[in-house]
Every structure is written in structure tokens, then in C-alpha cells.
Write a structure and sequence with these properties.
- The complex is a heterodimer of chains A (about 150) and B (about 150).
- In chain A, about 25% of the residues lie in helices and about 45% in strands.
- Chain A has about 150 residues and is α+β, with helices and mostly antiparallel strands.
- In chain A, strands 1-7-6-5-4-3-2 form a seven-stranded antiparallel sheet.
- In chain A, strand 5 and strand 6 form a beta hairpin.
- The longest helix of chain A has 23 residues.
- Chain A starts with a strand and ends with a helix.
- Chain B has two helices and seven strands; from the N terminus they run βαββββββα.
- Chain B is globular.
- The termini of chain B are far apart.
- Classes of the chains: A alpha+beta (about 150), B alpha+beta (about 150).
Chain lengths: ~150, ~150
């Protein structure tokens, strides 16, 4: 079957200093703490969540298991990348994703961007794009809700 | 090596903001410190390697080389090789990124340089930071910003 390479990109300005947003999003084992799509998470093999190469096994609210490996953790660029090793009910292949936080110096806010690249069957692209984008958008919306001001 | 980094959110879609930033001969349109710009040797403003000669409002001359221009990354990199400022090895990059949640643009301007004499560093950093911040304020006036 011929697969198509897809890139999804979501970005948002969060009205909070970058250090606070990074503190919320940095924990590779922390998705269920702030993201309503996910329920439980654990790091396999007793590793710590900031060990590059560690694997998180977590579940969404539908109960689907997702296993992802941490590929990059950078406290300088405030960046994290990871890949999917195994996932239930998500027809993607060679899925790599990551987010990066940038300080907005004129305003003390954060510019946050989250991207994913993956292969999928062309017929699945239209459904996968908004589904994956909404995961990233919701993460940033939660950061805004928890850390942002009145906006 | 001194670094200056200024970033801001501009209330315009990235294509509109990029049309302004991309023009290597267009600084007088948005950077308050610059009075005139001229491309040297009849080169186009989007020819990598081209030189712009900038005349400042205080009369100073600054000459800069376009080192990189990317319509994919929405980024522009240049150096300064002649200036009244005491900078050595100055290069800087402007990059735009789309804000998908709001159809705005995230703007970053980052420079690295040394100074001769080294004691001029703090003063030069303050000056360059002021120039960049004035540019950002000007872009926000033109396009709107938050």
C-alpha cells in the first residue's frame, strides 16, 4: 500500500512566562496530570522521566495503549521530541513528534509549537490530521487555562 | 560572544509579515533607526550574497551582506561588515513562525557578535537591543500586536 507523509503543526501564544510552561510540559510521564485526553502513564523499566531513551506507556480515555520513546529533552531550547513505538487505534507509521517553547520577550509570554510527522494511508489523512492537532491544541489550551492570566 | 534576542507576536498572517521582512532593501519601511537603504552593485534584494548600504538617521553608514534567505523557514540571515559600532563578527537572523491558534506571527530577531574593544560590549548590547525593540514596536504599529 502506498503511504502518504503527513505533517501536523499547531502553535499558540500562552500568556505565561516560558519557565512555567516548560515546568508543566517537561515531565515525559506527566500527560495525565494536565491533559484531559489521557488517564494513566508510567515509565517502563524503572527509568526516570528525564532519561532520554526512556519509554512511556500511557492510555487515553478510550483505554487505548500508547508507547512512546523520548528522543530529545533540551532544557536550553525547551524542546522535547519523541516517537511512537506502539499504539492502538491510530493508523500511523514512523510517527515522530515534538514541541518547543519560545520566550516572547516583548510581553513575557510563551510561543508554543507542537508538530508531528507520520506516514498513513491517504484515505486516513483527513481524519488523522484534526485528531492529532486537537491533542496538541488541548495541551496548550490547558497550559493557558492553568498558567495564563484572565484571557 | 554577545547575544541579543528579541521576540514578539505580530497580529498579521505570516505571509503578510514575511512580505515585509523578506525585502532586504526594505528596512526604512519598518526600522526607525534607518533612513535610507540601497542595494550595491545592482543586485536584487533577494540575491544571497548581495550587500545593502544603510544610511542611519544620525548619518552613520552600515553595510550588511545577505547570508541566507529561506521562504520555507521564513528566515533571513545577514552580517554587518562595516559600521560605526564597535562590532566584530556580527551576524543576525530574523525568523517568523505561524501562530496557528489566532492567525498571527511569532517574530524572533537574534544577533551574535563580539566587540572591539571588549569593554564596549554592554553598551553595544544595549544599543542593538534598543534598535531591535524599536523595530518590533514599529511592526506592531503597522500590523497590530498583542
Amino acid at each position: 500500500m502506498l503511504l502518504t507523509r503527513v505533517k501536523v503543526y499547531v502553535s499558540k501564544v500562552i500568556d505565561a512566562p516560558v519557565a512555567g510552561v516548560w515546568a508543566l510540559l517537561r515531565d515525559f510521564n506527566g500527560l495525565p496530570d494536565f491533559h484531559p485526553f489521557f488517564t494513566v502513564s508510567e515509565i517502563e523499566g524503572g527509568l526516570r522521566a528525564d532519561t532520554v531513551g526512556c519509554v512511556r506507556a500511557f492510555r487515553n480515555t478510550a483505554g487505548d495503549l500508547i508507547r512512546e520513546r523520548l528522543l530529545t529533552l533540551c532544557d536550553l531550547a525547551r524542546q522535547q521530541t519523541y516517537c511512537i513505538l506502539e499504539v492502538e487505534n491510530l493508523p500511523v507509521h514512523d510517527y515522530v513528534a515534538g514541541f518547543r517553547l519560545h520566550p516572547v520577550t516583548e510581553g513575557d509570554a510563551t510561543f508554543a509549537e507542537w508538530w508531528a510527522q507520520f506516514d498513513c494511508a491517504p484515505a486516513d489523512e483527513a481524519e488523522l490530521r484534526p485528531r492529532i492537532a486537537s491533542v496538541f491544541q488541548t495541551a496548550f489550551d490547558q497550559a493557558q487555562a492553568r498558567l495564563g492570566g484572565t484571557t | 560572544m554577545a547575544k541579543v534576542h528579541v521576540s514578539a507576536v505580530i497580529s498579521a498572517p505570516i505571509d503578510r509579515a514575511w512580505a515585509t521582512i523578506r525585502n532586504f532593501d526594505g528596512l526604512p519601511g519598518w526600522l526607525p533607526v534607518v533612513r535610507e537603504s540601497r542595494m550595491e552593485g545592482g543586485k536584487l534584494a533577494d540575491q544571497v550574497g548581495a550587500i545593502r548600504a544603510l544610511r542611519m538617521h544620525d548619518g552613520g553608514l552600515v553595510r550588511e551582506t545577505l547570508l541566507a534567505l529561506s521562504d520555507l523557514e521564513h528566515s533571513l540571515t545577514y552580517d554587518i561588515f562595516e559600521a560605526p559600532m564597535a562590532v566584530v563578527g556580527y551576524h543576525a537572523t530574523i525568523q517568523l513562525r505561524p501562530v496557528t491558534d489566532g492567525d498571527q506571527t511569532f517574530f524572533t530577531w537574534a544577533a551574535e557578535f563580539a566587540t572591539d574593544p571588549p569593554e564596549a560590549e554592554a553598551e553595544t548590547v544595549a544599543f542593538v537591543t534598543g534598535v531591535f525593540r524599536d523595530g518590533v514596536a514599529s511592526l506592531k504599529r503597522q500590523f497590530g500586536g498583542r
